[in-house]
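Minutes, structural biology subgroup

Action item carried over from last meeting: produce the structure token record for Oxidoreductase (Natronolimnobius baerhuensis). EB confirmed the sequence was re-checked against the source entry. Recorded below for completeness.
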Amino acid sequence: MAVFDLPAWAGLAPALILAGTAIFLFLLDSLSRRSMSREILAGTATAGALASLGVAVWFTVAGVGAPGMENGHGVITLFDGGNAFVGDGLFVVDQLALFFMIIVAVVTALVAVASYDYMDGHAHQAEYYSLLVLAATGMSLMAAANSLVTIFIALELASLPSYALVSILKDNRGSVEGGLKYFLIGAVSSAIFLYGISLVYGATGVMQLDLIADELAGGDVDPYGGLLGLGILMLIGGFAFKTASVPFHFWAPEAYEGAPAPISAFLSSASKAAGFVIAFRVFTTAFPLEITGDVIGVDWTLAFIVLAIVTMTVGNFAAATQQNVKRMLAYSSIGHAGYALIGLAGLTADGGELVMGAAMMHLLVYGFMNTGAFLFVALAEYWGVGRTFEDYNGLARQAPLACVALAVFMFSLAGIPPFGGFWSKYFLFTGALEAGLLVVAAALVVNSALSLYYYSRLVKAVWIEDPVVDRDSLGQPTGLYAAIIFAAVMTVLLLPGFGPVVDVAIDAAAAII
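Output recorded by EB:
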């Protein structure tokens, strides 16, 4: 018997909590601009993110959106046949949506805590936290969007605050340039994505994802196969931009390098996860290959196979040539987008749910290890350390605890046991093999081996190399240290505790494939 009987719109509570937090921060700033303290701003943003996380975890445990759940047989009865449909199907809250809402909330909380110290002395702090939570709201809504219209609106809600966040350091030329490039390429990609939506609508006459699949299955769009194929190709371009995949990756190194380091962590982790969740939902719900293949005569998974191999290869080879640590992590982020693309490349094969589930697992682990790596860069910037590998030499002598965390992040990103990144890459590798993607699996192994070179290079710099200059004693910023240590602990604990993550990810993938 149900304990709670909530309306369907309550399924969006994780996103609505973030939206309410953003509005509250705007009101706080407008009512008491001069007296507003960093503690209140950072605390409010963190509390909102943690509340969103708590509700998303609660819904997941309660079985909202779980396969086989029926109305009245869970802790929360806000679903129809297991899912909470909101706005006549414009949004759907299922296990897939909740999984990615958890990732967004975790990264947002870590970034908000770290920003308490990083933004000390910077102007526009209230705007900073408001925009951060507002962007997170868009990303959380992207996870539940079930229509091309709501996907586009949520995408823009996430993107527009992100442009401002990248360029919020107005006195920093790199920040302004990075924000401008991000905005210009983002505007182009949004136009491409919107045009793709219009073509799909022209071919099918509907926007809701499941209704698009019904139209395709009905065989009424055969004369529009070329139109539909072009629309799908343009949608892939829009997803490639949001996930920083080749060839729409050019904005990422500039934006990540120029942005405040916590924002680089936010964009490279939460934003990337949000981009992948809409790609997963669109290509499993609206364009299942067994239907679209007959209409357009093209296997769209081939595009994702090429994207996965090219993206991971370009990202890793470019990262290996960098001397700037932040830029290296930016290209590394592109490489990891290639790994996650394996989840789309193997969707139509037997065991496709394992491949997609493995990509989801990787994005969860990546949310901790990549966020932590960028937050270490934020800590180095807080100390006034330079940006090259040489500038990081010998940091472990003065900050051993933070450098232990850095080593955890680097080796986990490379996929070395006993860290969480090893397990997620292992599932990606085995999933690719089961799907018959031997070339993709080989590319994953080769690129992971290459990544160990530049990740270990940073570990060597902080632990083995002698400092090139004498440094004064380093500060101990509480917020940055807390976020980094927590991310490191979770990166380690995820490996022995990976069982529940595997179950939730594979069940969520199986439910929509």
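Discussion: Confidence is low (pLDDT under 50) at residues 69-81.
Next step: EB to file the record with the rest of the batch.
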